[in-house]
Amino acid sequence: MPSWIQQAAHRGILTSRYPRVAASEPDEIPLTARGPLPTGPIGPAAVDGCPVGAISPSGVDQGRCVRCARCLATGFRFGAPIEMAGTSPASLRTSTVAPAPSGAGSLAELGRSLHVFLVDVGSCNACNLEVLALANPFYDASRLGIFFTNSPRHADVLLVVGVPTAAMIEPVRRAYEAIPAPKAVVAIGACPISGGVFRGQPGLRSSLDELVPVDLFVPGCPPAPTQILDALLTLAGRGRRER
Amino acid sequence: MSPVVRRVGAADRFDLTPDRALAYAAPDGAFALYNDYTENASWLVPGAASGSVSEIAANWLGGGDDGPTRRLAPREAVEGYGTFTFPYGPISMGVPESGRFDVVTYGERVLELTPVGGYKSRRILPSLAGATLADAALRVERLAGNVSASHVAAFLAAAESAEGVAVPTSELWTRAVAQELQRVYNHVHLLARIAEAANQNVGAAQSHALAEELLRLQGRVFGHRWSFGALLPGGPPRRLDGPGRRSLAEDLRRRREEFEELWELFLDSRTFIDRIQGTCPVPREAAVRWGAVGPTLRACGVPWDDRLRVPVAPYTDLFVPLPVERDGDALARLLVRVQEVRASLLLLEQLLDRWPAPGEAPQPAAPPVDPGRGLGRVEGPSGDLVYDVRVAGSRIAAVGVRTPSDANWPVFASGMRGAVFTDFHFALESFGLVFAETDR
Ligand code: SF4
Ligand code: SF4
Hints:
The structure holds 2 protein chains of 2 kinds.
Chain A: H1 4-11, E1 36-38, H2 44-49, E2 55-56, E3 59-60, E4 76-78, E5 114-120, H3 126-132, E6 146-148, E7 157-161, H4 166-178, E8 184-188, H5 190-194, E9 216-218, H6 225-235
Parallel strand pairs in A: 5-6, 5-7, 7-8, 8-9
Antiparallel strand pairs in A: 1-4, 2-3
Chain B: E1 5-7, E2 21-26, E3 29-35, E4 42-45, H1 51-61, E5 70-71, E6 78-80, E7 84-88, E8 100-105, E9 110-117, H2 124-128, H3 133-141, H4 148-163, E10 166-167, H5 169-197, H6 201-222, H7 242-268, H8 270-276, H9 284-290, H10 295-298, H11 306-309, H12 330-353, E11 363-364, E12 373-380, E13 383-392, E14 395-402, H13 404-416, H14 424-431, H15 435-438
Antiparallel strand pairs in B: 1-6, 2-3, 3-4, 5-9, 7-8, 8-9, 10-11, 12-13, 13-14
Helix pairs in contact in B: 3-4, 4-5, 5-6, 5-12, 5-14, 6-7, 7-12, 12-14, 13-14
The complex binds iron/sulfur cluster (2 copies).
One iron/sulfur cluster (SF4) binds near residues 123 and 196 of chain A.
């Protein structure tokens, strides 16, 4: 009789070897997970064609980009580094790219596992599911000492997804207050970095750092699980693969 | 139920019988969606909806709660000795999206559970007015990311009908591929979530692994794990040429084998089946009365699926299986989804096998309901999804929508009456509800 164990054994080891080995493409990093980069001078067609104003003559603001691919027709390609978490929205502009150093944020000195609490402040649900995918056997974040917790009191890291709505301002602040120090906040996806496709809509905040102090910003719409994992490892002061 | 409890309020104003009309947010207020489950007739009746339907719309869609939040299902007033109400949420354990559940209980049993939304409202619909079709579609596909393909397909169908344009056949087929892939993903993901709630750790892990493989598959074919951009002009390049289709078909055969092995093991797990059997039952009458859609409706024996009842190309040319169960409980809803995974894989096989030849004549869009106004209706993973789009020139004038979650939140709430709170998570997952769909 087949059993769960046999079935699991039959499927072999699924778990990624990231970050010891580079993330695989397109499986772990599909085409649009890498941000767009210009292949030549940036013309007005590219600037005007970007639906979220992410392109300027000097480069691409990866924190605004929603990976719609329209700029491919005006000489861009998806080729930005996979590991792109930055310590400020400004650090995500590729003309002035300033990748977060390992240990950015305050949790490197903990020298132990990280407990993560997820809060949705107005997402489309895709970012939530990408964060939760870190628990599936392909990423198995627990192998790297990263665990999800259901209580902010047991957490070190607040992961925030979505564009902040008025109704979620108080709840996210309360969740932040409830986490004991030392703690860190990670903004996942274009929504909490820049408002994403909802930027400038009445009643919404365009950036999470207006509400709580943010340590790392992870661009993407949504970022791939590996990119979220990279941000958490960066916080914990552990190695990154690329750049 | 405790004898000291009596229901003092009435949910009658939400009672949609006998016309089985379902209010939805139209650009100009209430619309009624009539589903006559006994015949093929089913369509939207604009404007002059009956008084009761307008009132339902006002209560249901227009707030009726404090501040920016709103009830997603009617609340009956329940009172009695020892009852108390506690709000669960908006950040609640085991529910990854933000939303609230107001629970009335006297201890163990749930007397009333009212989902409350609005925490994630992004005011997407009003923001679409004045946008180009392409810009509007970017926001529509981010209305609810895990079911983006169904939203974009319904939105585009409505807009194309409003504009009276013809659509290339291969585009319609690509929409179907994206929708069926997402249906399979969502159904497998729900299986994983239910297994998780039932502490079936190995089964949950294996199902989550299969769900991940299905996201990777979307990533390979469409360049994006959630198929964002896949159905839009100027989106990422697709891999649906001859070799791309062959490798997708090959991949799907492997996923099918994995799924069958997995499901066989679940069926062997008596504890799993026992845990979900009888949980959160929705009798057929209740499902019809509340206007249930999708697997929730089909799990109560009602054979309704938009792909058969209001079909558009390519579903008109394909064999579409229609799985139906009788018991209306969490197990029945899961059994419908399991059979739909097989059905969608079969549909994908047909789609990839019979891909339209290049140069095939474009298909005319459905005739507009009014000049400049079109309706698009597709069967999303959790059920009937309707878009109502008005255009003015080359821009969007107004958009209304009725999502499967709008329809099914009240059904979930009705199923939870009398349940024990420990059933909450299986019950919730078995409906496939998405707060983002109602908090749009
Ligand atoms: S991918 Fe889209 S959002 Fe990103 S820079 Fe290019 S055009 Fe702008
Ligand atoms: S960043 Fe993109 S994927 Fe994430 S919640 Fe916002 S719209 Fe959805």
